[in-house]
Amino acid sequence: MSDVVPPEVRPKPAVPAKPPNVGAPSPSSPFPPQGPGIGGGGSVSGLPPSAIPVPIVNHGHSVGHNIGHGVGHVAGHVGGHTAAHNGGHGHGGSHSSGGGSTLLGYIGIDTIIEQMRKKTMKTGFDFNIMVVGHSGLGKSTLVNTLFKSQVSRRSAGWARDEKIPKTVEIKAVSHVLEEGGVKMKLTVVDTPGFGDQINNDNCWEPISKYINEQYEKFLKEEVNITRKKRIPDTRVHCCLFFITPTGRSLRPLDLEFMKRLSHSVNIIPVIAKSDSMTIEERQEFKQRVRKELEMAGIEFYPQKEFDEDMEDKSDNDKIREAMPFAVVGSDKEYPVNNKRVLGRKTAWGIVEVENPNHCEFAQLRDFLIRSHLQDLKEVTHNIHYETYRAKRLNANGGLHPISSNDTQESNL
């Protein structure tokens, strides 16, 4: 006789009790009420969305995809599409590398950039530029052309066509420029005619001393017990070194100056009054200057070791290949093709300052102001100033008034 129990007498499996509130979501639940057959049917359709295990991964799109489709089979098309949209399209797609937690809603982290912008707009910017070179190379005129304003050794009462006075001592002139709501305090440091004397021994020392004095001022403010909320920044962020357009080679004095100061300030060499050379002469002269600087071991800005990533290296390599920029400066306007342009009038026509076919002024301006101005300030603070600060504190064990010995040591 068989021991098989007939189907009609088998005990029925116990049916679990229906969970409370099934089919009636809580007031805070974003999902619609569940009815039989909604979400694909099956025994899972009766469970609330919160009871469904959903795998959590770091990637925002995966979270949105899993939540959207997992809940979609249970909560219906509307709930699944909403969860997938919130999880996979930026509102909750950010991921954490530490704990694996995922943002499931917008919280406003992306407003940090706007907060920083507003803060910076209120405080404004400082930028200090020094010009060095022979008298008569158009140093002051070029700076006025760069900023399209009378910023170099001109007071408010000077007329536009008046001659700029000759520099007899190192002089800093500050102006506040505003463009598009952004304010910048520009300080132009003009130097006496470099190398104009009969005896030019150590003629770079006054310039080197001025640069180090600005570092010293900043350092003293920084180490004060009660220091200012915002330390006035008079440090030289950029030194434009003007090369005489001889078409032959650099003078030994030029090489010596750049060698001694390249470790204290960002030096950018430019060929002044390049309209005095033909295009072929200009290109040959530029190549010769680059070769002489390389042979002398002089690194001008932007230095290769300061490139932060491959993108910076690629951009800076193009700039280094184009330097030194052959420029023409002018703060006078002339009519060309029914419009007013900055230029120099010659017997053969108008040399347009901002025309890239005539000179490289536009490249210099874009490089100096539009792409690398902030980097010039950061390199000054993080490299040149930190080098001075470490040497100053380590050598002296404290602070004392700067002396000529300190200046000479910092130049070595």
From TrEMBL:
Organism domain of life? Eukaryota
Pfam families this protein is in?
Septin
| Occurrences of domain Septin-type G (ranges) | 123-395
Q: Where in the cell is it found?
A: Cytoplasm
Q: Does the keyword Nucleotide-binding apply?
A: yes
Q: Which GO terms describe its cellular component?
A: cytoplasm
Gene3D superfamilies referenced in this protein's UniProt entry, alphabetically: P-loop containing nucleotide triphosphate hydrolases (3.40.50.300)
Keywords per UniProt: Cytoplasm, GTP-binding, Nucleotide-binding
GO MF, any single term: GTP binding
Q: Where are the stretches annotated Disordered?
A: 1-52
PANTHER family named in the record? SEPTIN
The record's similarity note reads: Belongs to the TRAFAC class TrmE-Era-EngA-EngB-Septin-like GTPase superfamily. Septin GTPase family.
Q: What is this protein called?
A: Neuronal-specific septin-3
What is the native source organism of this protein? Answer: Pagothenia borchgrevinki (Bald rockcod)
